[in-house]
Specification:
Elements lengths: L4 E7 L4 H11 L5 E8 L5 H8 L4 E3 L3 H5 L4 H13 L5 E4 L8 H4 L6 E5 L11 H10 L5 E8 L9 E8 L6 H25 L3
Parallel strand pairs: 1-2, 1-4, 2-3, 4-5
Antiparallel strand pairs: 5-6, 6-7
Helix pairs in contact: 1-7
The structure holds 5-O-phosphono-beta-D-ribofuranosylamine.
Length: 201
């Protein structure tokens, strides 16, 4: 792929991982271009980050579909249609809190990747950091981790692109662990995109 890889980044919240990608692109550390930032939540601060960086945004909430009695599959299919218009090479789910069905995924085979703040096979789903911390307090684990994986219909279960262990220390509060995990996330998400670009997404 001679021109820069075209990235669509999906968020639902604060967007610190989106910011890590924006910063890497602007620093010339990532040979890519973010062509759209998608959010399903209007209040997502990541939308402010995108606008500040001059990146097009797409706010696409599920609620109107639910209120109209329309299905998640219809939402997913319409979302895919809207996103396809940006011709993304890679779709990066960075704190995107909506499980995408094949109605979306089948439009972009092997081109949707997701950040999950746990090790492969550990704590799938939401609140993974908090659940790891609680397992640590019960003496069940002494570390957790972060992974980037290809998205398949099963939540947080697709082929792993990169993962890294994150230690938990006896003096840690939940905030300490979250800060340590986010630091690893910001590095891993850029590295994962780099690897996918090298593989031709
Ligand atoms: C990250 O921990 C991500 O793994 C999880 O939600 C958080 C998103 O953080 N899904 P941000 O919105 O990128 O700051």
């Amino acid at each position: 792929m001679n021109e820069r890889a075209r990235l669509a980044v999906f968020i639902s919240g604060f967007g610190s991982n989106l910011q890590a990608i924006i910063d890497a692109v602007q620093a010339g550390e990532l040979d890519a271009e973010i062509v759209v930032v998608v959010s399903n939540r209007k209040a997502a601060y990541g939308l402010v980050r995108a606008e500040r960086a001059g990146i097009p945004t797409l706010y696409f909430p599920l609620k109107p579909y639910r209120d109209a009695g329309r299905s998640r599959e219809e939402y997913d299919a319409d979302l895919a249609e809207r996103v396809a218009a940006y011709e993304p090479d890679l779709i990066v789910l960075a704190g995107w809190m909506h499980v995408l069905s094949p109605a979306f995924l089948d439009r972009f085979p092997n081109r949707v990747i997701n950040l999950h703040p746990a090790l492969p096979g550990q704590f799938p789903g939401t609140h993974a950091i908090q659940r790891a911390y609680e397992a640590f307090l019960r003496g069940e684990i002494d570390h957790t981790g972060v992974m980037m994986h290809y998205v398949v219909p099963e939540v947080d279960a697709g082929p792993v692109i990169i993962s890294e262990e994150v230690p938990i220390y006896p003096s840690d509060t939940l905030d300490d662990l979250e800060a340590r995990i986010h630091e690893v996330e910001h590095r891993l998400i850029v590295e994962a995109i780099r690897r996918c670009i090298r593989r031709g997404a």
